[in-house]
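Dear Dr. V.,

Thank you for agreeing to look over these. As mentioned in my earlier message, I'm a first-year student in the group and I'm still getting used to reading structure tokens, so any feedback on how I've presented them would be very welcome. I ran two proteins. I've put each sequence directly above its structure. The first is here:
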Amino acid sequence: MEKQLFTNTTILSWLTYFSENTEIDLEHVKILDITRKNKNLIPTVEVHRTVLVFTEAGDKDIFYKMWEVGLGDCEIIYNEGSEPVGQIKRNKVSEMINRGINASAGMIVLNPNARSTVKFGMDNKKFASGSVKYVGSEIRSVILSKMQINDHKNFCIISGESIAVETAMLNGDGTVIAVEYKERDRQTLEENVNRFGIENITIVDHVGEDTMKDLPVPDTTMLVASASMEQEIDYLLKWNPNMEFVIYTLDFKVAASMRDILEQFHISDVTVIQIAVSKLTSKNVFENQPAPWIISARAE
């Protein structure tokens, strides 16, 4: 069992401290212990107006990273010690970017601009530039919807860099295995992971027992169709015979053959759709985007 730095008793004492010294309505507080594995601070703050965060001493860049992704207007309510006693202090994140966490303690993060709804399809400009050519945000929105993300599912994403990032951000209590075969693509993905403060992604360089055997078993796999696709599906079904798949391809022949390919693995529940997106340019001309096929399938 994972050892907890902050026990239930400790959490209750910090809740009492903040309730007695601030006007915060505890009914609407999201509790987040980032000293535990796979807990994402930035994505949580982005969707909750009030977050009680438990931190461990030694994180030097926590406020800088929040400021860098646009959370500079968030307000931090905290004290100077590791115990829930003493004077309350309040500062904006933008005023704290040169300081880190010097004590294991609780703090309240207030985000006046938190969005209350799930948002699929981040603007590609927010991702790190690098070796990856990102799928359009509209297409990514459909793929993420097909993946049926919730807080406790585990995912495997093969060659889908931006999809892996958004899945991890949306899937706070689950995990993501991101498979990237090319070293440059892994480096770009790692840059995005650092940029968004994501903790619940594990990056590996191929699908196989030597890289994945000790990782959480995925419930759903999203993959980009490739020459190694059948080998990937075969291994993943041995790992989880009830795996759900979402497959992306720009190749009509591959899309047309997917039912037959999946039938080899005794998967008959298959849906194939094509998505077309056109964007109006500055010259008032509609420009067609790549129109992929998306295949969703479930093994039973």
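The second protein is here, in the same arrangement:
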Amino acid sequence: MKEKVIKNAAWMIVCKIAQALISLLITMFTARYLGPSNYGVVTYAASVVTFAVPMMQLGLNSVLVRELVLQPEMEGEILGTAIILSELSAFYCIAGIICFSLFANAGEMQTTIVCGLYAVMLIFQAADLVEYWFQFKYLSKYTAVVSLLAYVVVSGYKIFLLASQKMIYWFAVSNALDYLFISISLLLIYKKIGGGRLKWSWERAKRMFAVSRYYIFSGLLVVIFSQTDRIMLKIMIGDAQTGYYSAAVNCVGATGFLFAAIIDSMRPLILANKQKGQDIYENSVIQLYVLIVYPAVMVSVLLTICAEPVIYLLYGREYASSIMILRILAWYTSFSYYGGAKDVWILSEGKQNYLVFLNAAGAVINVALNYRMIPVFGAAGAAAASLATQFFTNIVMGFLIRPLRHNNILLLKALQPKYAVSFVRQFRIIKKERNNQ
């Protein structure tokens, strides 16, 4: 099983590295071409659409693997029901995004159009839920390769836009093309390799929604304290500061694929180990934290030291204001990635109801800190607010809420060097056994 997890993660990581490099280059040229103001408008639209994603997914993305583990013979019904529910929700979300922009950005028709065009991606992202079936089957090589090919195709489209100096509206549509390619390709592969026939079940919808509904509000709250900063920056200060902030966010997010791949690959193993015994289950959770925490801290240190050359190399001196923002946000990611891993433990323990308390606290703190710090420190204040929010939500709240304290104990165990050494030894043993085969 561990070998499957490693191979699954390896496929995802290798393809995601190539994808991240391509994305970084295209983002760099796009940001330089559009300039801080127009780039700020595009990233603002992305943040607004991100608010709608939890409502579009209806929390189903957080429970699909669990449902497939519990009833693998019903995979077609589980996936079909989830996709149809999300598709219906996507159209309502697009309408809501346009209405929000007309109200929040009154008189800024360009911003509203960009938001509407960007929101089209929700239709195709809903069908992308089939990706979780590939995770469950440890077949992420398909999703990794398809995602990489989609990035290559869409990157070619963006290069064409840059070369022909197209207007900002064309860039807003690019993400929709990305998800269109991925969703169609994965659905075809799913059918080709023998996935169950997709079908709708009203009873299944009610049962899944009874569990997933906890994730809708909690997911929305997560978005509030992860995306509110850019929205508040645009409304309170302007497009340029939003552009500086987004440039720094792109830098810290460049390694996110690594941690997402690790979490996605370990999730099915942890959920399966929950049925095998407490010791083996908790050991797999600790291993996940080892794989997340140590690399995250290393990345944070590296970005803090190299912030200035990274910004100048990628975006040019026009984005010099992003340097301090990057140094602050570099540490935000360490707590953010741990939070993603922690959610796997919460799901396996059936403690989804506590996500509301965690994320509500985070949302309130983030909005309050942004409101106080943005007028004084600008985008750097927004970065500091995000860092403080992540630390409080993912670490402090874990000690304050008694049913979640055991998870923090597992985290503290993962920070002990002996667990990291033990994991490295196990990895070497698996690698040696594979070489001897």
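From my reading of the second output: Residues 2-57 form the longest helix (56 residues). The radius of gyration is 21 Å. Does that match how you would interpret it?

Kind regards,
E.
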